[in-house]
What we know:
By secondary structure, this protein is an alpha/beta fold. It has 2 domains: 10-239, Alpha-Beta Barrel (TIM Barrel), CATH 3.20.20.20; 240-270. It has 10 helices and 8 strands. It has helices spanning 21-28, 32-44, 58-75, 87-94, 112-120, 141-157, 182-194, 214-228, 240-252, 260-267, and strands at residues 10-17, 49-53, 80-83, 102-108, 126-133, 165-168, 199-203, 232-235.
Amino acid sequence: MFKEEVYIMIIIGEKINGAIPSTGKAIAAKDAEFIRNLAIKQTEAGADFIDVCASVDDDIELETMKWLIDIVQDATDVPIAVDSPNPHTCVEAMKYCKKPGLFNSVSMEGDKIDVAFPAIADTKWQCVALLNSDKGIPKTAKDRLDVFAELMAKVKEYNIDPSRMHIDPLIEMLCTSEEGITMVTEVMKKIKELYPTIHVVGAVSNISFNIPARKIVNQAFAVLAMNAGMDSFILDPLNQDLIGMLFATEALLGEDEYCMEYIRAYREGIFGKKK
């Protein structure tokens, strides 16, 4: 028997990523104050994890990650998400973190799982896992769920509790999809049906690439994704309209008894009160 689901909305702040032009410029210039301010602002906005992604050349990635992690940890106690497409970098970056955080990410590609899982197995670290493999991105719900089954066999092999996993069902651009998000929400629902305590995660802004008025699309997607079981969000926590939409949806879905979380977040200025 699986544990009964306990709903907790998780916000992963995405602002400290070298792929964002302003952040990339700050990293190149070693502007520690810029990075520090991003960490503080995301903390004040209620982020549960601060994602740290260097997005620099391989030969300087780890030293840049250490520089970023040191600044973030000096600014906030919020756990860090170590973020790199290279699992070896994530494993090494874990050593610079003062407390367990989020490993971002693994997939069934190559040896990523067998690099990452031994490092996190006997810890309290959580882990993002993408549903792609050596065959690329699966095109159907069935194929993604097949990859999910293979992934969960590895999770069991390394004795990692499913509640520590954040499964990314692979959110693709809406403008290239023939059926909207129907397929990906089908995957989300099945994942939560099979493992009620597991987290379903996604980068909300992925859905709206190359579409005008992206914020509107992102908000609409967040509502539909939450209804399908998504409870972990990689996003800009400073976007008060989107954050407010998440709290409202959580309450409407019956996951926020007496709207207490919604009211708390509003009173703390996390949304609804422009700073």
